[in-house]
Structure formats: C-alpha cells, structure tokens
Design brief:
alpha/beta; globular; Rossmann fold; 34% helix; two-stranded antiparallel sheet
Length: 240
C-alpha cells in the first residue's frame, strides 16, 4: 500500500519518462522503463533454443537436444548465459547502468532469479570483467562490479575484484566491428595478479552485455592459463 502511494506521488511530483516509449514510468521498481515496455522484453525462460556453449539465441522453439552455433567453438570459456535479449527493458537499463551505478528492483530480481536457473551450480568465485584505468576514471565505477556485488550478496560466493586486471585501454567495440576486429582489440588486454586465488577455482565472469564473446573469451583464456578449473560467463543481456 505504501509503495503504491509512493509511486503515485512520485509520478505526479517527479514524472519519470520511459527511456523507450517516453510514456510515464508507473513504478519506481521498474527503473527507467515502463511496465508495458518491460512486458515486451524477451527474457529467457528455457523455452527457446540457444547455443549450449555461448547462449546465442537461435529459435523461439525449444529442442530436446544440445544445439551449437559453432561461432563460439574457439572461445575459451565453458558456458555463457544471459538473462535475456539486449532489447527494450534490458538494453535501456544497461545503457542507464553505464551512466550511474543504479540497479532497479525489477532488474535486480531478474538478474538474481535468472542466475539460479543457469548451469552455474559449481561456481565458487565471482569476478567482474574489469575496466581499464582510463575508462574507470571517466565513468567513476565499473558496472560489472555493481552487478557482481549484487549477485555475491545473494549467493554468498566469493567476490574477487582484484585478481583479474585490464592492462591496457581498448576502444569501445563499435556495432559494425566484425568478430576478428573485436578479438584483436582485446588481445593481451588482461592479466591475472593473484594466481594462488585462481588455481583450481570455478569462476563466474560477470558483465552487463555479451556481444561477440571476444572479451569474455580472452579473460577465460588468461584465467585458465593461471590454473582456473572452469570459467563461466553471466550477463544481463545477450545481443542477437
């Protein structure tokens, strides 16, 4: 009752426009997206067909067997999954997260609940994909760390923000950049600093969005080279 009263008051006094349709956001729990736009956002619910390794969306219809896209065959992570498609509610929330370290209650609930539906049961260490020093100074925070902290609190898993570092600044991946270009841009960009904490661990890499998988693959490569047992990837959204 109090929450509904607060939302009504907030709508009247400080109306928040939906970042997608520009209509009013009815509930503060929804963040920067209205309920209608959230309802149109494709959240993965295990009824679709996705690549068994990288989580790439393949079809709206389910299959009874493991399916692979083969574009990720040479990637070094074991499994990658996302909460949903990079569209509407998720894309708008991610773009906002890059501007300010805020996660709405709806996004937080979705991110946590989706995690428990993924094949990450043997994970024992969470590592956010790091930003370069330059980008961290520009932004003031690492959005992957914000997400990792939320998940670590809910799962009681070890949060490790220091063992994996980015050693060089790389340009933001452009939408039109091809797979090879993305891979070349992140080569030799990461390094492991605390090898003893990585050895024999099953690690979950956290990021906001999964695009080509180049960054996650390079991170997994350096972690496994230093003794990590398995490396998984979990993001809010997956580009299609």
């Amino acid at each position: 009752m109090i929450s509904k009263f607060y939302d009504s008051l907030l709508t009247l006094a400080y109306p928040q426009s939906c970042h997608i349709c520009e209509k009013s956001v009815e509930s503060s729990n929804d963040g920067v997206v209205c309920q209608k736009c959230w309802s149109k956002t494709h959240i993965f619910d295990n009824t679709e067909t996705i690549c068994h390794k990288c989580g790439r969306f393949l079809s709206d219809k389910p299959t009874d067997f493991e399916t692979f896209c083969h574009q990720c065959d040479e990637h070094f992570y074991d499994t990658a999954r996302a909460a949903g498609k990079y569209e509407k509610g998720l894309s708008a929330s991610i773009l906002n997260l890059k501007k300010e370290p805020f996660i709405s209650k709806r996004l937080k609930k979705l991110f946590i609940e989706s995690y428990f539906e993924k094949p990450f049961q043997d994970v024992n260490r969470i590592i956010p994909i790091p930003l370069s020093k330059q980008r961290l100074l520009e932004r003031g925070f690492n959005q992957a760390s914000v997400l990792a902290k939320v998940l670590a609190r809910e799962t009681n898993l070890t949060l490790d923000e220091y063992s994996l570092i980015r050693t060089k600044h790389t340009q933001v991946h452009r939408a039109g950049m091809d797979k090879k270009g993305r891979e070349l841009s992140v080569q030799k960009a990461f390094e492991v600093k605390r090898e003893k904490l990585i050895k024999n661990e099953n690690i979950l890499l956290i990021d906001d969005v999964f695009t080509s998988g180049a960054t996650a693959s390079i991170c997994a490569k350096v972690l496994k080279k230093k003794g990590a047992n398995k490396v998984y990837v979990y993001t809010i959204a997956r580009t299609v």
